[in-house]
Amino acid sequence: MSSIPGASQEEIRRQNLGAVLRYVHLHGPTSRAALTRHLGLNRSTIGALAADLTASGLVTEEAPTSARRAGRPSLVVSPRSDRVYANALSIEAERLRAARVGLGGRILDLREAPRPRGMSAVDAVGPLADLVRDMERAVAPDTLLVGGAVAVTDTTRDPDGRIQIASVNESLGVALEAEFPGGPGFVSGDLADIAGLAEHVRGVAAGVDDVIYLHGDLGISAGIIVGGRLMMGHHGYSGKVGHMVVNPNGLPCGCGSRGCWETEIGEAALLRHAGREPGDRAAVTDVLRAAADGDPKARQAVDQVADWLGFGVGNLVNVVNPDAVVFGGSLRDIFTAGADTVRRRLDAMPLPISREHLRLQPAALDQNAVLIGAAELAFDKLLADPLNVGVAGQLGSTDSA
Ligand SMILES: [Zn+2]
Known about the structure:
binds zinc ion, five-stranded mixed sheet, alpha/beta, globular
């Protein structure tokens, strides 16, 4: 890690502590020798930093189980996933989920409740808080909660089952604060952005700087990462690719427009093409299974949606020129079932300069991407200044009792 001109010794030390903690958080147990190599710091510095992180209860240091070489083995530094954690929440179209995610990105506990039609994001905070409290009862006393984050979908159903586009909800933070007064607090973000971030940090697009992550559920949304940074837009409201108009003579959309991309590739479109009644995720899975089993009508529906999927992806690729397009949520299954059709459409569309290096991939973290991504947001402060958060949070405090 290079030093910044004018930075004090203490600032440099904090930065380096963050770099070591972030490295083992993302890469898992790592020897001091490997940390020295990867972070460009000398051995004695790494030793001192690792000792400080160990003393604060954020990592452990142990001799490797099998020393392959002779001589004194390099101690292995591991994140304390069992002891340091974040609360990751998701408000999805049809369900609410809460997870405790340990440092290192490991899901330690997970609870789920249905989201009834017509339930607003703010109204979901109460039931989510119940899930969190339920998990907290099983938490060992000597632990550190570093923060929380909530991922919110922008597409819901009203009480009559009609699809609704939710707007940015600023009262969500207030409702969370009321449920967890005095806690480390929650940050919130768009579900597709957060799932995309998870795939970028730990999933199929790890190490790739330019990525479009497409998430399908009731609606279609994107997390777009450019130059390694999530594209946010005003108020974090960007990536609403489901509302690109692809078919001006198409069907009315929940947003008030007509022929939006999600009217052609959303879950409702697949069911419609398959001649089924509108339904939930289980109905979508059923069509995909029928297609895999050779049902011609279901197969045709998958191909039709996959063709529209390729069409929209082609347009996005020409705008962003990413190295990878990752398909998550219900689009993961639709892409997997119709990848040849998506590729065929895509081969006919983008500029060659955008197509040559492009990879199309199903999401790796699958359903957990949302929770793992939310935890990444919640861990950010700790990773930026480990000892500050660690000391302030007082490992072993009894405030959950
Ligand atoms: Zn729309």
